[in-house]
Amino acid sequence: MSLKGLFNPRWPGVALFDLDGTLVDSAPDLAAAVDQMLEHLGRKPAGLEKVRNWVGNGAGILVRRALADKTDWEPAALKDEILYNDALEIFYHAYGQINGRNAVVFDGVTECLNHLRSLRCKMAVVTNKPDRFVAPLLNKTGLDQYFRIWVGGDTLEVKKPDPAPLLYAMEQLGGTRGTTVMVGDSAADVNAAQAAGIPCVAVRYGYNFGGSVNSLGADAVVDSLAQLL
Ligand SMILES: O=C(O)COP(=O)(O)O
Ligand SMILES: [Mg+2]
């Protein structure tokens, strides 16, 4: 499918954007918070390279991956659950202070959002990031001006790759499957869009758990959101 085909001619349409790894490079802040948490628990810091591959399924899974020191964390024993709950609290506290400090909007994002806004496209953020961290990050990066609504990782009972958050945002903005597109950086985004029955653009510069986005089955893969103009 060509990129033109993704954006239905019946504008105004609806565009749903993933946050971490798509709009904002938040991995440095997330890594700093993960490392504070690990050090607090007497463990070795994980570092940015590992942590950026652990982002995309929400804070709970990020903390589980950090405790397991690998992306494919195993279901934990009960004693691990107690540790997990402590670790999650420590992470929340640390990230609450760090969120947005070193976060950078990726190249091409502002151009794309300005362009879509000029077409009167309605835009939402659909992220797995816990709700409490979404607005502060959008405010600090100046991206809040573009979005009518955002859906966080705990806004609904389920998160991406479940299609519900995408469909919820689409409906809130009065969109339909024929006029809506999802833009994301990971399998969670592409799988959610496919399950929702809406087309998906994947960006190559994001996190995607360390893997390539080329084989996820996205309708288009781009190196910069400026390519969508
Ligand atoms: O996993 C997270 O916390 C955020 O992920 P997302 O913005 O890429 O959905
Ligand atoms: Mg992402």
TrEMBL record:
UniProt-listed GO biological process terms: carbohydrate metabolic process; DNA repair; glycolate biosynthetic process
Recorded catalytic activity of this chain's protein: 2-phosphoglycolate + H2O = glycolate + phosphate
Residues holding Mg(2+): D18, D20, D185
Keyword check for Protein transport: no
One GO term describing the cellular component: cytosol
InterPro entries: HAD-like_hydrolase_sf (IPR050155), HAD-like_sf (IPR036412), HAD-SF_hydro_IA (IPR006439), HAD_2 (IPR041492), HAD_sf (IPR023214), PGP-like_dom2 (IPR023198), PGPase_prok (IPR037512)
Pathway connected to this protein: Organic acid metabolism; glycolate biosynthesis; glycolate from 2-phosphoglycolate: step 1/1
Active-site residues, record numbering mapped to chain: D18
Top EC class for this record: hydrolase
Residues in coiled coil: none
Pfam family name, one: HAD_2
Keyword vocabulary terms for this entry: Carbohydrate metabolism, Hydrolase, Magnesium, Metal-binding
Cofactor: Mg(2+)
Example of a GO MF term: phosphoglycolate phosphatase activity
Known EC number: 3.1.3.18
Alphabetized HAMAP family for the sequence: GPH_hydrolase_bact
General function of this protein: Specifically catalyzes the dephosphorylation of 2-phosphoglycolate. Is involved in the dissimilation of the intracellular 2-phosphoglycolate formed during the DNA repair of 3'-phosphoglycolate ends, a major class of DNA lesions induced by oxidative stress.
Cited NCBIfam families: HAD-SF-IA-v1, HAD-SF-IA-v3, PGP_bact, PRK13222.1-2
UniProt record similarity statement: Belongs to the HAD-like hydrolase superfamily. CbbY/CbbZ/Gph/YieH family.
Identification of the protein by name: Phosphoglycolate phosphatase
